[in-house]
Specification:
Blueprint: H1 17-20, E1 36-38, H2 58-68, E2 82-84, H3 97-105, E3 117-120, E4 141-144, E5 158-159, E6 183-187, H4 194-206, E7 210-212, E8 223-226, E9 229-232, E10 240-246, H5 255-262, E11 265-269, E12 288-289
Parallel strand pairs: 1-2, 3-4, 4-5, 6-7, 6-10, 10-11, 11-12
Antiparallel strand pairs: 8-9
Length: 295
């Protein structure tokens, strides 16, 4: 791509299903299911030969492979309902925004992003940490982590949890939700505002069944510490009835998916956070939300 290549328009925040999705592209099979096409993979460089993005991540490759192995995949773009660009945008820090927008604009079936789906788990960058992907993508849908109610296009975008690759190999023991757990509440997150830490320290001093953990001096992600006591992470989450997730620089945190994986009930302290798949999951029955001012 060169500097004269087209750039797609900014995100169309007004998009809804009926205004930015062409249903007439769907229904090409007899099973009344959507069909998904994945563009061929290319190595994109700028006019100086410098790669526009880092090599594709394992997580994004797994997403594409899962689609290809599913009953929804079609190798024929003429029969596709949804189009997946092969551009790894899971972590916005790993891509060049303007150049990535040029890639999208030059896809042969882009058409302003209609019926295109992008994946992004870590949106925004310092200092603002926007809650949606900063790459211009016009009318494309985004399956994104960390949406706020102000950036989420309801019934159009898809809110997903942020996957934590650091605990991908964790295997939890089977434990019934009826089984008594030694801790009422566990907080194993770090990196949030010091004001919240002060509040939690005061709460932990009053509650004998609240385990407030922090990172250990070794920097080992697989352990958490409280004084001289060391706990294995993420397995300590399974030892509590409730587990805490507090907003950090980004609205959503990876620990949310860790909590769900452990079978702990999440307590979410992140004003305006759109919980994953909130249009089909009744989170009032599965999680507790607390206003930041009420912590």
């Amino acid at each position: 791509l060169n500097n004269s290549s087209d750039v797609t328009k900014k995100r169309d925040q007004s998009c809804l299903f009926h205004s930015c999705f062409d249903v007439y592209h769907c229904g090409y099979n007899d099973d009344n299911r959507i069909s998904v096409y994945i563009y061929p993979q290319y190595k994109y460089t700028d006019e100086n030969g410098v790669p526009i993005a880092l090599p594709m991540s394992k997580e994004f490759m797994e997403i594409l492979q899962t689609v290809m192995d599913s009953i929804y995949f079609t190798p024929d773009p003429d029969r596709a309902c949804i189009f997946l660009p092969p551009i790894d945008m899971l972590n916005q820090n790993n891509i060049r925004l303007r150049e990535s927008s040029r890639i999208l604009a030059n896809l042969p079936r882009w058409n302003g992003g209609l019926n295109h789906l992008l994946f992004n788990m870590l949106p925004g960058s310092t200092p603002d940490y926007n809650t949606t992907l900063d790459v211009h993508h016009d009318k494309a849908m985004v399956a994104g982590g960390g949406y706020s109610i102000s950036s989420y296009r309801s019934n159009f975008d898809v809110a997903i949890p942020i996957f934590n690759p650091l605990v991908a190999d964790a295997r939890f023991a089977d434990k019934s939700y009826l089984e008594e757990r030694p801790w009422l509440l566990v907080s194993a997150q770090f990196g949030y505002h010091p004001e919240y830490r002060d509040e939690l320290n005061q709460l932990a001093d009053k509650m004998h069944d609240f385990l407030l953990l922090d990172k250990c001096g070794s920097g080992n992600y697989s352990i958490r510490c409280r004084g001289g006591d060391v706990y294995e992470y993420p397995y300590i989450l399974q030892e509590a009835t409730f587990c805490l997730m507090i907003r950090g620089a980004r609205l959503s945190q990876m620990i949310f998916s860790d909590i769900l994986m452990s079978g702990c009930i999440p307590i979410v302290v992140a004003d305006g956070f759109v919980l994953p798949f909130s249009e089909v999951i009744d989170w009032k029955r599965a999680a507790i939300t607390v206003r930041e001012d009420d912590l």
